[in-house]
Design goal:
With 246 residues, this protein is α/β, with parallel strands linked by helices. The protein has helices spanning 9-31, 50-55, 67-79, 96-99, 120-130, 144-153, 157-165, 178-187, 207-212, 216-227; strands at residues 38-42, 59-64, 86-90, 105-111, 131-142, 191-198, 239-245. The protein has a 7-stranded mixed sheet, sandwiched between helices. It is globular. The model has no long low-confidence stretch (mean pLDDT 93). It binds S-adenosylmethionine.
Length: 246
Amino acid sequence: MDRPLDRPAATRAATRATTRTAVVWSAVEGLLGGPGQVVVDIGGGTGGFAVRVAGLGHQVTVVDPSPDALAALDRRAGEQGVADRVTGQQGDLADLPGLVPAGSVDLVLCHGVLGLVDDPAAALRTIGAALRSGGALSLLVGQHHAAVLARAMAGHLVAARELLEDAAAGPGERRFTADELDRLLTEAGYTVSGMHAVRVFTDLVPASLLDLEPGAAASLLDLERAVASRPEYLTLAAQLHVVATH
Ligand SMILES: C[S@@+](CC[C@H](N)C(=O)[O-])C[C@H]1O[C@@H](n2cnc3c(N)ncnc32)[C@H](O)[C@@H]1O
């Protein structure tokens, strides 16, 4: 019988990574129509999503300031046989108007980047200008309340108190609440069509328990999927995923 502890650590890490991205990937897949869509992945890094999207037959441009990430993206795209459908462009979100024609993009992925920019409202307007009319944005950000809780549970009580008052306090990215995101997107001309709670349990359940309990990883994934669309879980989620059209 395959027991979790018999499996190599790399396999267990891959399972955990799949659990973290499963809800978002399902939503992204649902946004993509037939092959040949024009997709831009802002801050797409090493291409974890971009290469999968290209694998479905779409044309993906990754805009990222990191040359190392773009080199890893090229390698990954080559290994997966989609190098002809993935283009890496070194640049910042603010450079988008010079890299992508206005009104030309079917889908923008902006995952883990909005909390890194100085002016999130301006960033959303910049993305909106790149989208074609009716084009979609897949936005993934850290969620403020869960970040406060995580700091407190780790014993960093002063840091938790600071973060409670200021979503940009301390190291790392700025976090957002669901209401704040909704307002930012609406003011930037988007219509929000879906908001998902992401990583509600995954960051809380100790890896050691998952490794010990046969079938626990599958049960955790099932639980994450079950709460993703329940609004009462948005405040508990480590991340919020929003689908919005422009
Ligand atoms: C947290 S990682 C997220 C990577 C990927 N999107 C994902 O979800 O796995 C943030 C990425 O954004 C890039 N980045 C940082 N600042 C950026 C900016 N101002 N504009 C575009 N990308 C940026 C980083 O180089 C990095 O690859």
